[in-house]
Amino acid sequence: MKQNWTIKGLVLLVVFQMAVLAAEYLNAVYPLWTGQEIILKVVPIDPRSLFRGNYARLNYDISRIKLPEEAALKLPRHGEIVYVSLKPDKDGIHTYAGAGYEKPSEGLFLRGRISTNMRGEIGPFGVRYGIEAYFAPKEKALALEKQLRSGGIARIMVAANGKATLKNINGY
């Protein structure tokens, strides 16, 4: 009888672990399935690390923002959620249109987190959206590094809640 409960417990544990992994995967890819595609301008940064492998580290024009005066009255803390509104320019590249601590009721926006430690400054603030790294095989990463030296374009899929996933960069 005790062995029967042990087996049931182990099976339940394995099923639970698989469910957690499946939830993590679905959370990462659902913007690709349900999101709206936007285009962002990429600011080049040194894309290699001996510790993390072959990847391109990406930065965007919207990675440093200045909060509007009404939002800047409350200085953000490191890791605090911020919503950055976007608008397309004449070339179809999305640019900064405003930011705040409350989720916008309409329009296109990205959900990010303040990534800069604040010491009483009013801005600009660093923001991370979870789309700052693109992992690729070594040859692809080196080719992308060369291309990004003169800038680049990233295609991002944005879900209705502002979660973003990198679709491709410069066609990769």
**Helix percentage:** 25-40%
Number of helices: 3
> What is the quaternary state of this protein?
single chain
Uncertain runs are none
Q: Largest sheet, if any?
A: 6 strands, antiparallel
H/E order of the elements?
Answer: HEEEEHEEEEEHEE
Class derived from helix and strand content:
alpha+beta
Fold and architecture overview:
Helices cover 28% and strands 36% of the residues. By secondary structure, it is an alpha+beta fold. The protein folds into two domains: 1-34; 36-169, no CATH class. The strands form two sheets. Strands 1, 2, 3, 9, 10 and 11 form a six-stranded antiparallel sheet that branches. Strands 4-8-7-5-6 form a five-stranded antiparallel sheet, with no helix packed on it. A hairpin with a 5-residue loop joins β10 and β11. The longest helix has 33 residues, at 2-34. The mean pLDDT is 81.
Question: How are the elements arranged and paired?
Answer:
Blueprint: H1 2-34, E1 36-44, E2 48-49, E3 53-60, E4 64-65, H2 69-72, E5 81-88, E6 94-100, E7 109-114, E8 125-128, E9 133-135, H3 138-148, E10 152-158, E11 164-169
Antiparallel strand pairs: 1-3, 1-10, 2-3, 3-9, 4-8, 5-6, 5-7, 7-8, 10-11
